Amino acid sequence: MIKKLSRTLWLTLCTSLLSCITGFDLSNWPDQIPSPEYFFAAYEADQENAARQTRNEYMSWVVNFYQGSLLYPTGWLEIEERVVVGFADEDKNAARVKIQQLGALIAAEWAKHNDIRLIDTRILALWGSVLQLATDSTQRSAGIELIGLDANGLLSRSLAKSAVTEARYASLLGIDLFDGF
After folding, report:
1. What is the CB neighbour count within 10 angstroms for residue 40?
2. 53: DSSP letter
3. Of the residues 12, 48, 91, 110, which has the maximum number of CB atoms within 10 A of its CB?
4. CA 67 to CA 84: how far, in whole Å?
5. Is 35 left (phi over 0), alpha (psi -120 to 50) or beta?
6. CB 63 within 8 A of CB 30
7. How many CB atoms are closer than 10 A to CB 36?
8. Minimal CA–CA distance to 39: which of 102, 117, 116, 105?
């Protein structure tokens, strides 16, 4: 009896650990995140990435992007909420749609394998800071637009990663990023 119980507990523990490693259950997909089908399509469109990363790994990174992780506790969902707070009620819905569309675009690329993705964590952290440090809705709108242009520029390879810098955003948006830190 104890041997059978121990084996059952061992199998349960192994299954739980395996689910941590291989991903998550899509039936628990968060409602606030764009549909998994959007990200399935993005994953399938990049065969180079699919050869380096499983779909479950990719989808796990998508969820980490939106919800945050141990290393980066502020996820995109939290950034979305912070960004729209500064907008007037009549502009809030339009701002929310823009920031959600931008998030989906960024997440689809950032979730790829490190060696393949065109939007890396350095750029993502910079963009998160830009959006959170913008002092008013005008700066936030300009930040969303500029980040959208840059994300599309990176994806089309018309903008080099090295061009996406703190100094560029500080200059174009008038945001004092990290106060000279």
Report:
1. 14
2. S
3. 110
4. 17
5. beta
6. yes
7. 15
8. 105
pLDDT single digits (tens) 44-65: 999 999 999 999 999 999 999 9
Using CB atoms within 10 Å of the CB of residue 100, give its burial: 0 to 12 exposed, 13 to 18 middle, 19+ buried.
middle
Structural contact between residues 100 and 65, judged by C-beta atoms closer than 8 angstroms: no
Global confidence as pTM: 0.83
Q: Domain limits of the chain?
A: 28-180
Range 32-39, long-range pairs (CB < 8 A, 24+ positions): 32/66, 32/77, 33/62, 33/63, 33/66, 33/77, 34/100, 34/103, 34/104, 34/107, 38/104, 38/108, 39/107, 39/108, 39/111
Dihedrals phi, psi of 144, to nearest 5 degrees: -60, -45
Q: Which residue type occupies 43?
A: Y
**What pLDDT digit, counting tens, does each position of 59-87 carry?**
999 999 999 988 788 899 999 999 999 89
Please check whether residue 166 is in contact with residue 177, taking contact to mean a CB–CB distance below 8 angstroms: yes
Output the CA–CA distances (angstroms, integers) from residue 116 to 69, 102, 113, in the order listed.
21, 20, 5
